[in-house]
Amino acid sequence: MAKWKIPSISPLALSLSTSPQVLDWSLETQGYNHLVGHHFFWAAPVFALDQLAKTGYPVAQVGKVNDTAAPASACPGLTGEGAVRWLFLKDTKGLSVGGVDTVYRVETAGGAAPATCKGMKPSFEVKYATQCKFADRGWRGLLLTVYTDWVYGPKK
User: Fold this and answer.
1) Residues of 33-65 as b/e, b for ≥16 C-beta within 10 angstroms?
2) CA distance between the termini of the chain
3) Residue ranges per structural domain of the chain
């Protein structure tokens, strides 16, 4: 993973994801030491910036508008599976609140689905990390999501 460390933090985060304390330490040393929200699915992808010290924190409930293959130079993941696709996500139903309704999933590391499920367990996961960029109505941010569970942002 070392060759993808700079300028990207996604491969580093993916490689350290099995050691949460080391991951937290590494992100903190790079200035990403503030948990700002969570990413989950509730009938659609949701990005809740619920850890911001702000009343009426942004919640973006979005759907896919477009996607593109990750560049060939993207980190292929822990087992060489390839990087998951980059996405342009937008709220087309008016469900988002707090000023954020657009999300770009970029700088992905790992996460591509296998070509076939032959020989796989009935239930399995393909780990990945990504940086997500948010924008709308004057609010802009960059977040790092690992396994789509944790969302980190810069201290300020």
Assistant:
1) ebbbbbbeeeeebbbbbeebeeeebbbbbbeee
2) 28
3) 2-153
Residues 93-110, mean pLDDT to the nearest whole number: 88
pTM beyond 0.70: the answer is yes
Instruction: Decide: helix, strand or coil at residue 151.
Output: strand
Nearest of 144, 139, 136 to residue 107 by alpha carbon? 144
Q: Which of 100, 105, 75 lies closest to 88, judged by CA?
A: 105
pLDDT of 61: 93
Of 5, 28, 25, 29, the closest CA to residue 15 belongs to 5
3-state SS of the chain: helix, strand, coil percent to 5? 15, 40, 50
- How far is 128 from 139, CA to CA, in rounded Å? 26
pLDDT tens column, 9-29: 677 777 777 777 887 787 778
Beta bridge partner(s), residue 88: 66, 104
Q: Using one digit for the tens of pLDDT, what is the confidence trace for 75-87?
A: 898 888 999 999 9
Structure tokens at 38: 């969570």
